[in-house]
Every structure is written in structure tokens, then in C-alpha cells.
Amino acid sequence: MHITRETDYAVRCVLYLSGVSDGVSVVDDIAGEMGIPKSFLAKILQKLAKAGIVTSIRGVKGGFRLAQKPERINLLKVIEATQGQLSLNLCVLDEKSCSRSSTCSIHPVWVRIQDIMEKELKRQSFKGFLKESVSRETNVPKGPSSKD
Question: Is the pTM of this model over 0.70?
């Protein structure tokens, strides 16, 4: 499995929106804060909106916000919104794609690993990432202390 740059940016975007207190952010703010090119972010936000992860708000005070609470959005949803259905190997998604699937001794291993991976990605919610992010920020050393 390979996470694309687009998916990495989508994860950053959802993480950012998870931490916005008033819920609405403009593309410029998300892009600047998360280091995502604005033109690329606009396309990513369209995919996230189509998947029901974010909502677009029109008007002067418009922007984007999460369509669901962060605890209801998991990593698998975001990955699949940008990359499509996750697959460790094509034969896991479609056994007919490989004539050896029914006799292959490796096929059950791919299926088992795929299942483990999907379960773990579903378990990882953005509420948890947000808590972890806050925890990391509070534990970051503030720099060398000066001695007089």
C-alpha cells in the first residue's frame, strides 16, 4: 500500500479542520497552516466533500468545515476518499483478477493483512489524532534555557 501525496494532504486538511473551534476555514488558511498548495487543496476538498467528510459553505463567511464530528471520521474514510478502495494486492479486491487466487498459498495472507490494515485504519479517528497533536505540542521543549 502506498499513501499518495494527495492523501497525505487530505489527512492534514481533515486534521486541521478537526481542530478549528468555530468549524469553518477558508482554503488559504488551511493551505498556509498545513503546507498544502492552494490549487491542489481545492481539488482535495472537492473529493472530501463528495465523500461526505467536509461541507462547503458559500458566502462571505464561507469556507469548509467537517461534515461529521472528528470521532466519526477515520483514516480509512479519508484514504478511500482520495485514493479509492484500499488494496494491498489486486487479488484481495477481486479474486477473478488472478487465476491463481483459489490455489495460491499467499492469497489468504494478503486477505488477512488487508483485513488487519482496514480494521486499524478504521480505528484511528481524527478525534484521537487531535488529542495526540495537543499532547505533543504541550510536551515539546521550548528550546535551550539560558543560564545567567
Answer: yes
